[in-house]
Structures are given as C-alpha cells and as structure tokens.
Amino acid sequence: MSLPAGWTPEQLAQASAAEIAAGRLPLTAQWRIAAQRQAAEQGRAAFTSGLSVAEFAALRSIGFEPVGQVMGSAVYHIGWWSVGCGYGGGGGLLGMLASGFAPAPVVDVPGTRQLMDEARHRAMHRLHAECQGLGADGVVGVQLTVAPFMGDGMEFVATGTAVRARGDTRPGRVFTSDLSAQDFVKLVRAGWLPVALVMGLAVALRHDDWTTQYQQRSWYNQELVGSTQLVQAVRAGARAALEADVRRHGGQGVVLRDTVLRVAEVRCRQFGSKSEQHDHYADAYLYGTAIVPLPERDVDPATHASPLPMLRLDDRRSR
Q1: Of 252, 14, 63, 89, which Cα lies nearest the Cα of 168?
Q2: How far is CA 236 from the centre of its chain?
Q3: What is the dihedral of CA 290, 293, 299, 303, to 10 degrees?
Q4: Domain for residue 306, yes or no?
Q5: What does each C-alpha distance from 163 to 36, 184, 190, 292 come to in angstroms?
C-alpha cells in the first residue's frame, strides 16, 4: 500500500505506533480494511476466505455469506518470569532445614500468565476490530497460533473468516468463534448463537522437593503426589479463568474446543547453594466458543431445513 502524499516511512511508523497505543489497528491495516469495505459496497470486490467449498455452502444454507479474511497479531517479549528455585521451601540442604521437610507448594506465576493472556486477547481484539471495519456480523473458524519471534519474542496470531447475514435479521453484536462453518450452522439450527471465543489460562511452578526427588529415584511404582498437585492446580485455574471469560462476554455456556497442558523442567540454583536444583513449570490453556440461546423471534423455520446431501459422481479421483 502506497504512502499518502507527503508522508515519510518514519511518519507512518510513528502514527501507527500512536494508533496501536490507543487500542486501534495500525494505519496500514485501517486503510486496507476501509478500501476493502468501500470496494465491496460498490460491488467491485471479491471476498477472501479460509473456507472450504462445503463450509461456504453450509453458510449460505442459513443466509450467511463470507466477507473477507481477518486477522489480529501481537508480538511480545518474554523477559524474566521465574519465581526462583525452592520458592516456598524445599531446595537443597538449606531448603530442607528451613522447611522442616515440608512439601513444596504450587506457586502461581502471575507475570507469565498475564503476558500470555493479554497477548492472546489483544490479538483477538484486533481481529474483532477488522471484522467490525468490514461491516461483518462475526468471525468463524478462528485459529490462534503462537510462534517464536526474533530471539525471546513470541508472536500471537488470530485468523478467521468474517461473515455477514444476507437478510434483515442480524445478530445484535459482532461475534467471534473457533467453530468451523459447518459447526456454526449446526449450532444455529439447534437454536443457539455464538458470542465470543473465550479462553482460560493458568501458569504455576512447583519445586522438586526432597519427597519428589526420592519418589523419582525409587524403584517402586507410585504416584508423584507433588506433580499431581501441580497439574491439577493449573487445570483448575484454567477452568476458573474460562468460566470468568464466559461470564464477561454474557455467555450462558461454552462449547469447549480443546484443553492444552504443557509441563517442563526448569533448572535453578537456590541462593547460598552450589548444587543445581529443578522446578517443574506447567501451564494449562482452555478455549472454546461462548454461546447464548437464539431468540425465538429471530428463528426462521426455513433455516431449519436439512441441507441437501451432495454425492461425488465421478469416482475416478478416489481410485
């Protein structure tokens, strides 16, 4: 996209940074969305989408059509995050003496949790803004990805296809959903509407105390009680965060897409000790689509007709 007359790249970068700081899209994204919407209103633009043929046909069967692909991204630097070796007691001889052999607690890591939660929600906010800019009613097929970016950075990206109802009856507010187009259609036919893609995240650490170290070296088959406490704590925290996100968006339920659990060993060294110790880091991430009942006045009986089956007549491709 070419620069406006009289603008320098430095001026564009400065103006875009100001827009981002104000919670809006970068200028180039704003111009792209505005040009795309203007072209669509004038009937001279083709839509873009990430839909398959089956998804496109399913959307049209209930009166929706794709408007365009939308996305949001945020790049974050991940700095110091660990609460340290033996936090709460348990590491090395000093930790053993200080704690009196007490088991190490599961410790929340608020800095990392807040960073990852904020980054994902910021990417979703920008995807939502692009959808609104196109005049669409919502986004289906949202995909959230996280990838390394320039050393210690991480890029959080949300992509999806903006859709719009063709008739006069339209959703009351812009929705986002990770449901595929077919699942979106099934949801509407069942009398429900998506509200928002919702997320829950929890991050915690637990030091490998003396009991854990002994159990890990034992010849006996036994439960690692401390590790069980760690994964149960992060899963419970993620569920609580997900429920709070559903309530924040006014949803009456959630269609859960997936539960992701990551556990990693983190090396550490307790203050005053020369021996290397270990913490175990865990994060749990839940996401799905918050839903609400479809008002009866908005239900069109014609949209509840079953879709026509489609069969491939040419079977040469399958052979």
Answers
A1: 63
A2: 18
A3: 40
A4: no
A5: 14, 11, 19, 18
Is 307 part of a structural domain of the chain? no
Structure-block tokens of residue 158: 């949300």
Q: Are residues 124 and 21 in the same domain?
A: no
Top-confidence residue, 7 or 127 = 127
This prediction has a pTM of 0.76
If DSSP codes are grouped into helix, strand and coil, which group holds residue 215?
Answer: helix
Enumerate the β-bridge partners of residue 291: 194, 253
Structure-block tokens of residue 216: 């890990």
Q: Read off the pLDDT of each residue in 159-182 and give the average, rounded to a whole number.
A: 86
H/E run at residue 255: strand 253-268
Residue 311 lies in a domain: no
Question: What is the DSSP annotation of 16-82?
Answer: HHHHHHTTS--HHHHHHHHHHHHHHHTT---------HHHHHHHHHTTEEEEEEEEEEEEEE-----
- pLDDT, averaged across the chain: 79
Residue 3 domain flag: no
- φ, ψ for residue 269 (rounded to 5)? -140, 120
Cα dihedral across residues 93, 98, 101, 102: positive or negative: negative
161 and 236 in a single domain? The answer is: yes
User: Could you tell me the residue range of the domain that residue 23 belongs to?
Assistant: 9-46
**Beta strand 277-293 with 253-268: parallel, antiparallel or unpaired?**
antiparallel
What ranges make up the beta strands (E) of 89-191? 106-108, 138-149, 153-165, 175-176
